[in-house]
Predict the 3D structure of the following.
Amino acid sequence: MRQKKNKKIRRSKGERIGYFLICLTLGLFAFTTVYPVWHVIMYSLSDSKRAMSGGFFFWPRGLDLKGYELIFKTSQIWVAYKNSILVTLLGTVFSVTLSAITAYPLSRKRLRGRGFISLAIFFTMLFSGGMIPLYLQVYRLGLINTFWSMILPTAMSAYNMFILRNYMQSIPESLEESARIDGANDVIILFRIYLPLCTPALAAVAMFYGVGYWNNYMNCLLYTNTNELQVLPLYLRGVLGGAAANALSASGDTSSLGEAAALTEETLKMTVVAVSVVPIIIAYPYLQRYYTKGITIGAVKG
Amino acid sequence: MKTIMKTIVALLLVATFFLSSVPASVAAEETPVIKMLLWGDNNPPEENDVLSELEARLGVKLKVIYVTSDDYSAKLNSLIASNSLPDIFSVRDVKVLMELRDAGMLYNMESLLAEYGPDILAEVGENLYKPLVNKDGVYGLVSEAGLYPKSLAVRKDWLANVGLEMPTDTESLYEVLHAFTFKDPDGNGVNDTYGIVTTMADAATFQHLMSAFDIPIRFNNGTILLEDGTVTTFLKHPRFLEAINYLRRLYQDGVMDPDFATLTLMQSFEKLWRGNVGMLDFQCVGTTNNWYPNRYTFEVPKNPSDLFGFAYINGNGSVKLYPNYQTADAVINANCAHPELAVKLINYMYYNAEGQELTYMGVEGKQFEWVDKELGKYKRLGIYTDDAAHRAAGAFVYNWAGGFTRENAETRVMNKTTQDGLNAEWAVALDYPMIVQALETRLEYGAILDDIVKECFAQLIVTTGDVEAEYQEFIARWDSEGGLEFEAEASRAYAEENQEK
């Protein structure tokens, strides 16, 4: 009789115990990382009064969507969502393009003074003029109260540009040389050869910019004066502040306070966090591999 | 196919680019426009019923730049830097306010008040020149709204259940707290109650406990006036250790919630709402008005005075409240094209009863109607029973405090229990040495001194060591960290200001 080959690697008792302990430790770490987010979402779906008693939230306590109802009931949330999506999409495309066309010449050794230019850009990572000089610049360019005031002032990040530059430096120069022999100029080389090869770096940088634009409310706060241009983070800040104010305000006949009075500040806080973070949570798993790759690609020379 | 897709995406992006760049068309304004920068925690649409009604009544179009409370300073600073201040705004930083006045960026409205601000003059009277910014003119107006003294609310049903009366001195107070903690006042058979909840997050929750010993406690610049005229921290009150020993007794005997050092203010409210404590020292505007009945998780009677009574220990109330005379709630830009209309608008919205009603409750007949105006009872109409719809119509959002006057649209619609509670507290509130001028030592050492006060207060309640010795250490630390310099400056400033009277 042929003996069945045992393909499984036999572990010693010590190895099995070690493996178990590793899994247990990692499982605990995973739980402590994931649970706070889960807690926030479950709290936001719970009845305010029952949620006040505290403790762990594995499931909603008395499913109640009043917090979401309050946030989504006004039309302003949709204006804010629209503006946030537009700013994120347009801003990301614009910023990635700007970063790429800056990174490419700086990655070429034949550019005279590239060291000095790189240093000047790097300097801006360490020191900044501050809020007032930037505001004055935006003001004098006539961008106040316009859509582009939420994109242009922070259009390019030096850090992201350097990630792209370093990645482009790792691409063999022989590719460029052979393209030139074939008659390609710099623009064609950049868009037809280098950018397709830089897809991982571009995706990572796009993710950095995208998350930055999605969470940014400061540009909207400083440079716009109208609700029509309000972005989601700013809208949610208003909702959250209103919850705290509700706790103490005596706004009229208490019997007509509506849903707002039945909601505690905690519930509204959790709902606000859930509304602002859920789109990122949905998108992140698809882009995570680019994110972790992006952190390191700029640091390692190919 | 790939090329076609790329072309379509590119064209869509370009279209979005241009669409987002199209400026909003601006209609020619015939009605004069006044711009106001306002902080608040709402999101009102720019066109709404209240603003339309204001325009109809006053002939002024009001445009509001609305930002959250936390972002107000950043927004104001950027507008100052670009010299594009709105016509009306508030300034909460004393340094910025004085610099704006000295730079000539604030309008002196003194000459306009008689004609355009009659309600302002009638309400403010001789206090018009009290704000720090109003030397040699009237550059700013200070609101007196929202100054609600704290009330020690006591569960009357619990008192009845344990067979005790409303406490009037420290011993009867202790007896009540003890019964509330150990005698099952809610009758549920579970030992789940405390006598009182306090929190280091807000000195208000200790006010009546400390005022029983004649000490006006405040964690932020809490001062007292000694007999020799020295203005100093309340830690140096002659009866401070006596008060601390009383609090230690409450803490050690378990009649005070033991988590006082870490609880947030909201958590302390929740304990009252859930029926876990029998007393809370806070403004009754919350306890018997705004929170009543929806916040409470147990069944409550229709009339709040059937559930709560107010206690005054040794005849004292809470700490007296003064407006912040170092800031200004309404100033006018020196470059305002229509300063007289700006004064008219402020007068109507914040000082006139009819205007307060409009901006606080909305348009009568549309957002609300009176049920009994004398008693302050009204009801919201139709869709405006919902808070979100009510605020979207412009009500409340431009005037959430009810006005700038102490009696205003908000106080007029409070229930009787709350109004009586507030009036009673005003009569017995403990005074403290209020100083208007900005003290340099306060700016330099204030944060550190306040931290020492809080640390001392909490530590002395819980310590198992020598209370007297630890107290002396804290006093020595307070003195050496700038406290003595503060004392000297504050005493001089107080004597100066009160000599002028």
Remarks:
- Residues 22-28 of chain B have pLDDT under 50 and may be disordered.
- The first strand of chain B starts at residue 33 and ends at 39.
